[in-house]
Design a protein that fits this description.
Elements: H1 2-26, H2 40-51, E1 55-56, H3 57-64, H4 68-80, E2 84-88, E3 96-100, H5 102-123, H6 128-152
Antiparallel strand pairs: 1-3, 2-3
Helix pairs in contact: 2-5, 3-4
């Protein structure tokens, strides 16, 4: 049991470092092909819309795990810069649906290439079984965090 405790402590420490570094990374904008650097939350907003054309603000906020107010601010900025467009739902005039403009599609494609580069350079030798185990661990960590977040609200 000592070996398991030692490796679990090492994993926890590494996980903390990765989370910290990811937070630093998120603060640095990246150009995904439009000539204009975007923050990762802007890129993820565009990616979510690209994968769900016609998504509304409420569903997008749920998808991104943020408030409707936060997603509305990002949408407004991205719309002004020509990355997406809003349109009224023909069936429900109160609902606003979101779709990508050409610039938004360029970002999603560039972001996909970015992920492909990560996989090909850093994760290509990871087996399906290893990904499955890692995914299982992440699901448990996520469940723990969801529980803690819900306790605090």
């Amino acid at each position: 049991m000592v070996k398991k405790e030692r490796i679990s402590a090492e994993v926890a420490e590494r996980f903390d470092r990765v989370v910290y570094k990811f937070n630093v990374f998120q603060k640095s904008p990246i150009d995904f092909g439009t000539g204009e650097p975007l923050y990762i939350h802007e890129t993820h907003t565009l990616t979510a819309i690209g994968k769900n054309p016609g998504i509304n603000v409420t569903d997008l906020a749920k998808e991104l795990c943020v408030t409707k107010g936060a997603v509305s601010q990002v949408i407004g900025k991205l719309e002004k810069r020509g990355y997406l467009r809003k349109r009224k739902d023909f069936n429900d005039g109160k609902r606003v649906l979101l779709e990508l403009e050409e610039k938004g599609n360029m970002v999603v494609e560039g972001h996909d290439r970015f992920h492909e580069e990560i996989y090909s350079k850093y994760l290509d030798d990871v087996s399906y079984g290893q990904f499955t185990v890692f995914n299982k661990i992440l699901k448990r960590v996520e469940a723990f965090l969801d529980k803690k977040i819900n306790e605090d609200t």
